[in-house]
Amino acid sequence: MEIFANHAHAFPAEVRPEGSIESLVRLMDACGIARAVCFAPFRRQVAEAGYDKPNEWLVEALTDPAADGRLVGFAAINPTEDDAIARLERAREIGLVGVKLHPTFDKFDILDERAMQFYAVAEQMGMPLDFHTGVHWHRLADNNPLKFDEVAFLHPRLTMILEHVGGRPFFAEMLAVLGNNNRLDREARLFAGISSVLNRDFQRLWYLGLERIAELVHIFGEDVSIYGLDFPYNTVEMVKDDIRQLKGLDLSEQGLHKLFAGNLERAIGLAPG
Question: Which CATH number does the domain housing residue 139 bear?
Fold first, then answer.
């Protein structure tokens, strides 16, 4: 079974060597992963090192022979910045196929008026948005996961990947959001990002465990979950253990393919590899 994994944060080697494209490819090889979606670094993570256009950096980095055509790029954008929509349009022009947003890292309210305008443009463009959800050391009033219900309600054609499924504190709220916006008789457009949720000791605020993932599948079926690496924050051993655990779910062969590749391909509009 070929694995096409989501959720790898890529960095210039001089900024974060363990997060470089070369390091990502080594992890993929060690874990038997054929392809992956990688995110550009956020602007404030790399600006001091001279990378004021991190989305453009990622596009150039993906031409490195080390990538070998195995990586698909997402922009990283703070949707409340003045140039956010221009950067979104530029991301599409240079070949990036989605956008990573992190409300807690960039400290914006999910329902900020500027963010809502950004989501509307992304919806019109057909650009999927991948959101961090759950606790991450910023005020909960800004990033309560129930706010994603409002985003989904007002933007009914917007595809969203909701990472960590709210984590341990907000798993029930994310079930509500997913259930309220994914009709069982229609193709899902809100996806559950299964990343950094299976290591009880290391991922304490995000840990869900296999039982909750099984519950997620029981409720929503096999068409909603997307496996993600959360590279470089998870080691080779942790990624291997994730894959081992998830292969133990009571899924059909087709369901395993969807979890490890097919749902991601559908979310980003990419032909099967």
Answer: 3.20.20.140
Domains in the chain, number: 1
In angstroms, rounded to a whole number, what is the distance separating the alpha carbons of residues 74 and 197?
Answer: 22
> Which of 227, 183, 203 has the alpha carbon at shortest distance from 134?
203
Q: How far apart are CA 165 and CA 161, in angstroms?
A: 9
Task: Give me 178's structure tokens.
Answer: 């997913």
**Does residue 273 sit within a domain?**
no
The boundaries of the domain holding residue 83 are: 4-268
Cα pseudo-dihedral 84, 6, 242, 226, rounded to 10: 100
**157-209 per-position pLDDT tens digit:** 999 999 999 999 999 999 999 999 987 656 779 999 999 999 999 888 899 99
In a domain, 175, yes or no: yes
According to DSSP, residue 272 is labeled: P
Retrieve residue 116's tokens: 């809502």
Q: Is 189 helix (H, G, I), strand (E, B) or coil?
A: coil
Q: Among 18, 20, 47, 37, which Cα is nearest to 100's?
A: 37
Burial of 75 (0-12, 13-18, 19+ CB in 10 A): buried
Instruction: Report how far residue 78's alpha carbon sits from residue 83's, in angstroms, rounded to the nearest whole number.
Output: 9
Backbone φ and ψ of 55, nearest 5°: -65, -40
pTM: 0.95
Our separate counts of H helices and E strands in the chain read: 12, 8
Q: Choose among 160, 242, 162: nearest CA to 207.
A: 242
CA gap 247, 9 in Å, rounded: 24
- How many CB atoms are closer than 10 A to CB 117? 14
- Number of neighbouring beta carbons within 10 Å of residue 25: 18
Place of tokens 């309560």: 144
pLDDT digits (tens, 9 = 90+) for 83-100: 999 999 999 999 999 999
